[in-house]
Write a structure and sequence with these properties.
binds erythose-4-phosphate; alpha/beta; single chain; 8-stranded parallel beta barrel; 11 helices
Length: 283
Amino acid sequence: MKPSSLTTKIFLDSGDPAETKQALSILGFLDGQTTNPSLIAKNPQTAGKKFSKQELLDFYKGIVGQVSVLIPQGSVSVEVYADASTKAEEMLVQGREFNKWIPNAHIKYPTTSEGLKAAEISVKEGMRVNMTLVFSQEQAAAVYAATKGAKKGQVFLSPFIGRLDDRGENGMDLISNIIKMYKAGDGHVEVLTASVRSVEHQVRAIEVGTDIITSPLRVLKEWKEEISNDKFQISNEIKNPNLKPIQYQEIGLDKPWQEYNLAHELTDKGLERFAADWNGLIG
Ligand code: E4P
């Protein structure tokens, strides 16, 4: 059972239904799961295997189908294939298809101009979306603007904190900054902390008020142990002197989404990595 004091939704970040079962048995609940092409490539059943494009899609469908059955009340994020040249229309075709796979899908689109075009239409069509590869407040503002009118729970925003930490920036600051910026809004976008690397990330993201957090099984296990051993306590800020603070920017939420600066090097690199991991399975 989920403690009633814990209002943050807890997701597993994994492409393996065996881990969903383990997370459920460790925590006693799970509010959702996020997948992506790299996580699918890590599924033990793909080891040493090559797929045709159709076989790979069928495999992905099978995985999310199993996860969906395990957490029918939860949300399951399914990511479209996109590289730098993928147009919104191609993403939409995938999104509409993936949305039919399971009843509880959130379709992951990259936070690029093409991804936002696809998301804007998807939301109008009543689909749920999870905007991924978010690394800046401007991108978060654009997602807010592009999805105005969406129902609560329909739009997730996934800032990747671990990948910012990896290059020496304090990723957790981005979460706090976005939450602060969204306070001026109507609450239709939920902040989903992603790219979580440690139990400190887990604890701190909950403290700063993230709506959702997705974490690898290893982190969920450690976190559960901390709670059970009563070691769980309010941490102070993640004070890593090696991490450069990310300053809050005064950004309004009222502009058309096309007017926000969507560019971020890590979004481009992230797209490349997802595409490479997916294509690496095809042969
Ligand atoms: C989940 O939605 C993200 O795709 C995932 O957390 C990315 O994590 P990584 O930075 O460890 O690859």
